[in-house]
Each structure stands twice: as structure tokens, then as C-alpha cells.
Amino acid sequence: QVQLVESGGGLVQPGGSLRLSCAASGSIFSFNAMGWYRQAPGKERESVAFMPSDIANYADSVKGRFTISRDNAKNTLYLQMNSLNPEDTAVYYCYAFDGRNNRHYWGHGTQVTVSS
Q1: I want to staple 48 with a disulfide (CB 3.0 to 4.6 A). Which of 36, 77, 78, 116 is the partner?
Q2: Is 43 exposed, middle or buried (0-12, 13-18, 19+ CB in 10 A)?
């Protein structure tokens, strides 16, 4: 059973940057897809950045500001977030899909708050 643990969230001013990390307890090399989702208060969870392959897909609201990347050697997924604005405030979740075993994994989330 793989566990995903997010870190790097916090309070940042508008225009600032944060880098989220998602450390997996096992190898991420076999994951068919990984991504970041977020959920703001009173809203549904939404996809932010997703990597079904080496090509990343981004939500329109974060294109040009967020960058997803993965380091298979470190079993870690990242989300670099730049030019943050208050609308980016949410709990950010790491997600992974193991297609071989048809299993979905979620982290517990990390809070990102953008406020002056």
C-alpha cells in the first residue's frame, strides 16, 4: 500500500510562490498517472495539474503559473506555484493511479492560503 504525503503548503502573499511536494512511500515509477487537485471551501475538488504521461495538463486557471514535475528517483511529485492569487487558496491533494492494480491513491492534503 503506497502512501502519499504532501508538504510545502502555507500562507503566502498575493504574487508569491510556493512549491508543493508529494512524497510516496514506494516507487512512483509504476504509476500510470499522477497529479494535483485542490478543494476550496464550499467548492468541489478540481484537477489543477495532471500527468497521465510525460505531457502535463493544466487547469485553465493555473496555466502559465503552475508547473508539475516528478522525480522518479526520489519518488516525489512537485507542484511549483507562481504568481499566486487569493483564488488559489485551497487544500491541495496529491493523486496517483496504479493502472496495473487499478488502485487510486490520495494524500491527506496541504493547506495553501494566499492572503495579504
Answers
A1: 36
A2: exposed
Cell of 40: 476550496
User: Would you state the pLDDT for residue 59?
Assistant: 97
pLDDT digits (tens, 9 = 90+) for 63-94: 999 999 999 899 999 999 999 999 999 999 99
> What does the buried/exposed string (b/e) look like for 68-94 if buried means 16 or more CB atoms within 10 Å of the residue's CB?
bebeeeebbbbbebeebeeebbbbbbb
Asked if 7 contacts 21 with a C-beta cutoff of 8 angstroms, the reply is yes
pLDDT of res. 72:
87
Strand partners, 18: 81
